[in-house]
Amino acid sequence: MVKKPKKKNWYRLDNTAKLYPAITSTQATSVFRLSATLKKMVEPSLLKKALVRISKRFPLFTVRLKRGFFWYYYEKTDIDPVPEEEKFFPCMFLEYKKEGFLPFRVLYYKRKISLEISHSITDGTGAITFLKSLIVEYFAQKGVPCDLFQGIVRPEMPIEDCESEDSFQHYYKKGLPDPPPLAKAYKLNYKSIPMGEYLITTGIVDVKNILAASKEYTCTVTQYFIAHYFDTLQDLFRLNSDYKQLPVVINIPVNLRNIFPSKTMRNFFAGISPAIDFRLGHYSFAELILIAQNYMKTAITEKKLAQQISYNVQQEKPLWIRVVPLWLKKQIVKIVYRNYGENRMTTSLSNLGDVVMPGEIEDQIDRFEFYPPPSDGTMKKVSMLSYRGKMYISFGSLTNDKTVEKLFFRKLRKAGFAVKIESNGV
Amino acid sequence: MPYCPKCGVEVDNGIINCPLCVCEIPQFEEDVVEKRFPIPENIYSNQIKELKKQIFISITILCFGGILTLSSVHFLAGIDSQITNYGIIGIFGTWFYLFLFFGYISNIYLTVIGVGAVSLFLILGIDIVNPGVTWSVDVGFPVVVLFTVILLCAIKLYKRFKRKNQYVIIPIYIFTWSSFFCLGLESIIDYNFSGEISLTWSVIVLIPLLSIAAVLLGLYINLPEKIRDRLRRKFHF
Ligand SMILES: [Zn+2]
Questions:
Q1: How many Å apart are CA A396 and CA A412, to the nearest integer?
Q2: How many Å apart are CA B69 and CA B141, to the nearest integer?
Q3: ipTM computed for the complex
Q4: What is the residue extent of each domain of chain A?
Q5: DSSP H helical segments within A95-220, as ranges?
Q6: Which of A196, A197, A421 lies nearest to residue B20, judging by beta carbons?
Q7: Which A positions 99-118 lie with beta carbon below 8 A of chain B?
Q8: pTM, two decimal places
């Protein structure tokens, strides 16, 4: 008799994912939200059916975090996810170390379906694929099926091996020199709000106006917003002259799937960090655009990003690091991250790009939104995406002080864009 | 669509203050717009509830164990001592007190009445166990009832005349009601020991306490807004 090869029911955390269990706290939850608002009320029973069906197709997500002796690992579980009615603040802590909990949750509220997912499972690209596939399945349950469509996974599609690839390991090149170290960054010093709260301020602008403005400066939309965010922080830098004056650094996650041909559903991004030292004087908007443009052009190249990947992966390679017990490793990672990760960024800006849905249902979806994970190290982060000609720019804040948001959106208004503001304000 | 006059940004219908600058939004349309978010709850208050429940269950198990041990000592080993009886009564009382203090009865009046009832039970228990103690009915009952009634009145009145500036109102309350309590207490004790009521120390307590309360109240009502504001600022909690 031939023994059937047993299917592996656990997997290692990828390079970035290793960081998150160590730095996650009840306030800095490493949980981000992607949501879709439909034109009609969400039907919870259909959503539940769709979620169970689609989650079977994403076995990488239906797992439980377990402690090994040296590393955390993910173990498959048979729990069926159940959508819950939204009642808490967004992006709250996920108890994914506990039995019976998954590293993501699906929420509904009136016409809105939200996916909240831990960064230790996947990045924005993996999460939006999951949400889009869930929405398509939801409409299929409602009797509106869609044809096959780029970027959408159907429950009946076979699971490919490349989806669970750890692309960091795959594209890791041994022996590349380390990238130059980053300088300490200017920090936003605000009093934080109570644990369990998270404030979102979303500004909505027309994509065509932003595109027109970007065209004027011959830059991309992301570059335009980087320059705009730098300009906002420049104003703040002048306002808060009593803060420690250091270069302003914006951390920008880059989707590595655009550079390396990976189809992974796990994390595959790298952070790049444009920096400007406003102690040198006032920068005009044209200058800021130029800096953003030049930086992005040189940083988002295969060579530079391969260097970044190799540097990150190298950190976990040495034997003496691997044999440190998990509890000690966790403490070390925490300290290293605080000093070399968080301290080296003022804030972060993440652009998920344009979300496209199949023609059969795109009319039935009002909008998509993307909320950054709460971060006590930076206090504020911003993330954005666009859907059907509107750009949704969401600030996530752990402080009541909204000066940054105010400066940012008033500045957009001054630049001639019509802006609509919403918030989960209380 | 309404706009914030300061930021120049559009906001949803029905939004009262600008989400960016808290400036008031001029209202002119009456369409009610569907809410985009639920009124968010704090996830951690639920977790605290859960933790409280766990603590309470542990305490209950401990109490049960304690009673079981003491009962077996009493009935099986045949040791009939006052200590085991006190122990059983004490554990019962403690469990009920904790049940009330953990807020499992959401109605504050019922909680206060419950605390009174448990106290009565304890006093009675001590009386029954120890034949030497005889004051429970004569003194204990009236004192507990008096205290409970005064507390109930105080809470009722406090709720009715709730003011924002509790730093003045709360001391006034404590002073007033505790002086009444002293008055009642001395009457009960006096009546039981000498058969008639002649008040001495409670009056001495009553006069300064009530005067302080009156002065505070007078000051608070008549204080110019500026000083009141400063008081509020300095002593808010
Ligand atoms: Zn405003």
A1: 18
A2: 31
A3: 0.81
A4: 10-154, 199-423
A5: 124-141, 167-170, 207-216
A6: A421
A7: 109-112
A8: 0.73
